[in-house]
Amino acid sequence: MNIEKMYERSDVQQLVRAMLLLDDEDDVRAFLTDLCTPREICDFGQRLQVARFLDEGEPYVEVQARTGASSTTVSRVSKALNGEHGGYRRVLIKLEDQERGRT
Known about the structure:
Layout lengths: L2 H4 L3 H11 L4 H11 L2 H18 L4 H8 L3 H11 L5 H13 L4
């Protein structure tokens, strides 16, 4: 499915709006637990960590070793990290700002 078309679906629009309504970490944990399997949640966390290590300049092989991610996952995350949508990049910047006490 085309990414732009995906976001035109009413159920996906509702999901996006629902995520914006989450107030805190407890809300996010509860929603993720109801929405995803434990494996999916761990996979999301792993992908974000892969993105962080790649953004810090770690070589693919080192990222694989440190995260346990497959070469396919590392490659896909790298493509997304440097791709047109910028989701990983936005989140990494916000996380960095938060860690530095700027939020």
